[in-house]
Amino acid sequence: MRILVTGGCGFIGSAVVRHVIGATGHTVVNVDTMTYAATRDSTADVAADPRYLHIQADITDGAAMRAVFTTHQPDAVMHLAAESHVDRSIDGPGVFMTTNVLGTFTLLQAARDYWSGLDAARQAAFRFHHISTDEVFGTLQPGDPPFTETTPYDPRSPYSASKAASDHLVRAWQHTYGLPTFVTNTTNNYGFWHFPEKLIPLVTINAINGRALPVYGDGGNMRDWLFVDDHAEALVLAVERGQPGETYAIGARQPRTNLEVVHTICAILDELRPDPAGPHARLIRYVTDRPGHDFRYEIDPSHAEAALGWRPRHDFETGLRRTVQWYLEHRDWWTALQARHDSTKRLGTATGVATGTAAP
């Protein structure tokens, strides 16, 4: 299978690329415009493989996307390219609408034009796999059952609203035009090559450097955490087995509060890289909460597990230990990123001002 992957130099996209090249016989055409969060380092290990090709192009460029389809004749699309940081969407929502909504529309149109010219057998086999988030479902309260494929949409941030819109577009192109599309929604991912503005890499790097570890509110917000390599495996199984019009909710059944995550990182670093100044948890600071911060996300992955024959390979503690160890071993990568981008700057406060207090 020749798979067109969008956003294949991003965090989840690069994990998909590495899995496809390393564990399957498929070919990857990676379309990535190389925004701030993309890095070629994440695909360097497979870059020389003849089954891999990177094209630097923007998914909002219709002519470029049509040319990619015409030239490379993919059998499937895995659409991962997206702006994904909630805090950035609060400060600057415009780029989220452009990339996530207009970009998805443009890609769907290019895919539809290409697909309509295929013979009947290739049309039937073609798949457009749209990768989305559980944040489109809104927020859960304590005691609420986890999200499933039938949970009503209730996005609460500019980011989740833009992803909800793109999900609706993908389904509309299947129902209206017959384009064989389907959607996967997943929960929070963590792992290697994660741009250091998200919780786990930010806290890990700050702790390594002896800096404050910011925790929103009281740290009680809860997420279901999925190791990115496990997610990549599920996504590739989905593009191989997924059915048009379907939705697959992919999760790990491993919910943790943000404060639990931070304390676990601190405990791992206390073991792997003790700080002479004392336990890393001393660095925890509670900061002003994000506007409209969703309380809890959690997925019931039963349908996806049965349909795809998949279960995550990593429990949270094992995956997080591997992740922290990876950041310890790849200091050159993230220090270079920090030199180019100020990833320590607080985003998503609306006013740009945050206050913090030390952990008790």
Automatic annotation (TrEMBL):
Family annotation (InterPro entries): dTDP_Gluc_deHydtase, NAD(P)-bd_dom, NAD(P)-bd_dom_sf, Sc_DH/Rdtase_CS
Listed cofactors: NAD(+)
Catalytic activity of the protein: dTDP-alpha-D-glucose = dTDP-4-dehydro-6-deoxy-alpha-D-glucose + H2O
E.C. no: 4.2.1.46
Keyword field contains NAD: yes
Every NAD(P)-binding domain range: 4-323
GO biological process: nucleotide-sugar metabolic process
Alphabetized CDD domains for the sequence: dTDP_GD_SDR_e
PANTHER family cross-referenced by the UniProt entry: DTDP-D-GLUCOSE 4,6-DEHYDRATASE-RELATED
Family named by the database record: Belongs to the NAD(P)-dependent epimerase/dehydratase family. dTDP-glucose dehydratase subfamily.
The protein's name in its UniProt record: dTDP-glucose 4,6-dehydratase
Organism, as annotated: Gluconacetobacter dulcium
